[in-house]
From TrEMBL:
The lineage of its organism: Bacteria, Pseudomonadati, Verrucomicrobiota, Verrucomicrobiia, Verrucomicrobiales. It comes from Verrucomicrobia subdivision 6 bacterium BACL9 MAG-120507-bin52. Its EC number is 4.99.1.12. This is Pyridinium-3,5-bisthiocarboxylic acid mononucleotide nickel insertion protein. One of its GO terms (molecular function) is lyase activity. Pfam families: Ni_insertion.
């Protein structure tokens, strides 16, 4: 079994326009981007264009967002009128974007909103975007979501993002690189600075990485069928200003692999009710898993080992939540490799009625079937049979489907 895999090679950083340009170079039609932008009903007139150019000897595609009649500085950090988070959210929710595209774009903007709220000490709902509220940034993130959906990408990985050194002029003054919003969005994700006196990873690029990329590191073995070259705005002195996007099929015969962060802490003075509440909060805030196991600690004290799995970009936030919501004075974070089965959820017909099942595949082989406990309980009561009988019927139906 294979999955459509997009791998981003970011030796010169990443911006929203570079990412969109790489998707165009992979074959996404510009008309798709134009349709997505038109569906937003922006008050500004927006013209999308592409051009072929060369950066550091490599040919590729540039993605240009123009507002006719306005003096345009491509994808910079100058002063823009910007928009509030609520305005952008309403634009997206009222649009005719496909639900997966809309939800992906909303998630990327929400990451930026959370970062800005923390930086400026204001509630998320009152955040005012400057750079990311500009038309070109809105277009970049919406087109990024639309392009990924068009290519039917199921897995995105990337190399460690890089940024330059020096300072940048933002709406609130001069700041050292990485730009404050970029650093906050990439909290929990490794970023490497190189000796180039320019911003290389922008807030929109950071939002794309934080939301869409599930694993950072070298390219795993997979068959690259296409390579797209997205060009940046300027020429760099020592490297091509290019984002390479590898599109191909990755095998899932050994299960899906990704990197997650394991957060662990020992607790010896917490009640069961308090611990259950903390686990519920962690799951509600985006933990991949959270569990507690009994522990015999020093001086023969009984306690609990609390273990949480988190995506790298969520690890710091969830670690802070553990320290706030439990009695922990410290914790450990470790990046680990996780392997999971390919999952599918469906409803199967049984003599007791429809039962939802979760299926787990290793390659093409069905190796796990988990009937819905809720459905089994309801059916067992309705039919006056055992829970086990209903579950067995659901498993047989799933195997024979």
């Amino acid at each position: 079994m294979s999955a459509t895999h997009l791998h981003l090679d970011c030796p010169s950083g990443i911006s929203g326009d570079m990412f969109c340009a790489s998707l165009l170079d992979l074959g996404v039609p510009l008309s798709l981007f134009q349709e997505a932008v038109t569906s937003l009903h922006l008050p500004e007139k927006v013209l999308l264009q592409t051009e072929r150019s060369i950066r550091g000897g490599l040919a590729g595609t540039r993605f240009l967002v123009e507002e006719p009649g306005h003096h345009h500085h491509p994808h910079d950090h100058g002063h823009h009128h910007g928009r509030n988070w609520s305005e952008i959210r309403d634009l997206l929710k009222k649009s005719k974007l496909a639900p997966p595209v809309r939800d992906s774009a909303l998630a990327m903007f929400h990451r930026v909103a959370e970062a800005e709220a923390k930086l400026h000490g204001v509630p998320v709902e009152t955040v005012h975007f400057h750079e990311v509220g500009a038309v070109d940034s809105i277009v970049d993130l919406v087109c990024a979501a639309a392009g990924v959906h068009h290519l039917k990408v199921t897995e995105i990985t990337a190399t460690t993002p890089v940024d330059g050194t020096g300072t940048i002029h933002c709406a609130h003054g001069k700041f050292p690189l990485p730009a404050p919003a970029t650093a906050e969005i990439l909290r929990g994700i490794s970023i490497r600075q190189i000796d180039v006196p320019h911003e290389l990873t922008t807030p929109t690029g950071a939002a794309i990485l934080a939301q869409l990329v599930k694993k950072f590191g070298p390219l795993d073995s997979f068959a690259a069928e296409k390579i797209g070259y997205g060009l940046g705005t300027r020429d760099l002195p020592d490297r091509p200003n290019v984002l390479r996007a590898f599109l191909g099929q990755s095998s899932t015969s050994q299960g899906r692999r990704d990197l997650v962060v394991e957060i662990r802490t020992h607790l010896d003075d917490i009640t069961g009710e308090h611990l259950a509440h903390a686990i519920d909060r962690l799951m509600a805030e985006g933990a991949l898993d959270a569990a507690a196991s009994p522990l015999l600690m020093k001086k023969a004290r009984t306690g609990h080992l609390l273990t949480i799995l988190a995506l790298p970009q969520d690890a710091e936030r969830l670690a802070s939540l553990v320290l706030r919501e439990t009695t922990a004075f410290g914790l450990r974070l470790e990046q680990v490799e996780r392997r999971t089965l390919r999952r599918e959820e469906k409803s199967v017909a049984t003599s007791y009625g429809p039962i939802r099942v979760k299926l787990g595949y290793l390659g093409d082989s069905l190796v796990q079937i988990h009937p819905s406990d809720e459905d089994c309980r309801k059916a067992s009561i309705s039919a006056s049979v055992s829970h086990a009988d209903v579950a067995a019927a659901a498993r047989n139906a799933a195997r024979n489907a």
